[in-house]
# Entry
Amino acid sequence: MLHRSIAVPTASRAEVIAAFSYALDLTEGQPAGHCIRACWIGMQVGRQIGLSSQDLGDLYYTLLLKDLGCSSNAARICELYEADDRAFKQGYKTVGTSLAATLHFVFRKTAQGRPLRQRAAAIGNILRNGDAIAQEMIVSRCTRGADIARTLRFPDAVCDGIYHLDEHWDASGRPGRLRGDAIPLFSRIALLAQVVDVFHVHAGPAAAIDEARRRSSVWFDPALVQAFEAVSASTMFWSALASPTIEARVVRMAPQENEVPLDDNYLDAIADAFGQVIDAKSPFTAGHSHRVGQLSERLAGAFGMSRERARWLRRAAVLHDVGKLGVSSAILEKPAGLDEREWVEMRSHAAHTRAILGRIGALADLADVAAAHHERLDGTGYPLAISGAAISRDTRIITTCDFYDALVSERPYRAALSVDEAIAIMTEAVGSAIDPECLKALKTNIH
# Structure
């Protein structure tokens, strides 16, 4: 089989990271472009207070990647609050700073629609253990985010900025209960930018300004609030936020002093980093993306593909489930069969994968291959219901490896199967879902 050559990537690191930030918006339940807009807001504040070019560069990536660890608490939110994690996160960000407002939100959203006894038990657990629960989830999120940022080769300033995102000026935040200037500056700017964007999208510029003032000296550094008020006095500030070209503007803002070569090694690092974000969405998928990537690379070699092509295919395999960041953990963690509405949402992850990868210039050629991993040879798959020869060998390899790893891993609805059990099930699916040559190569490469 002939394969086209792999083009040398020409995009910048900023372009790739900015495009991937849309995946983080998905898992936080935020409107598309939230991290991009927060970056615009925070960079204007950084310039207003006179940050150096080096500091602006570190601030830039702190802002784009502030939610890098956000998928790690999704399953826990679903479990504790018995709620859709994405909707819960989105709603919680518009809650005021008072204890009364927080309790009202928790009472209203926890186990919504469940029997009274079940709701009371869930709420009681949160009331008894609320502080420990909040600390646990934020530490998990912050630690994961900082660790992934390190795998992307960002300096300590960026990693610390991500780790301390949820600290508050008055020491009421987490994870370290830091106060005032003890909070890293980039964390202070990122939290302000995040809240400004949430309230701007939710209720407009006036609401965003009012909320920043309301939280000054409580959540926010008052000097940064003053800087925000200064830059937000310009109509250009708000028009840029609403502009369809905001992503391009933000990419152009990336300070060149902080750029690194976007070579194959760094593209691998980016794919692996976002593979970690994907797998953190559920405890049942830990390591899944990495394993599917490694196995797909081995099968590519078995088919005689070049090392370059096999490496390219590994990236596609690692990122095949990036769209699951847009699926509720209530569905991903469900221990029983899905109803029709839930299946519709579950199937949407393939289209999300296509949309996310398709907007990343250096990885766009992965999009169709990765997004088609649930297509079937008999035409009954999704998202496009293509069949036969329309499904490339690249996709057939990923499908086979994904199918296998899912079978031999524990899932909410069943225990992990043995290798022999998995192969038996896959053999029954040969010709309908599984390519026979791919299964043959798989059996050779797992023993």
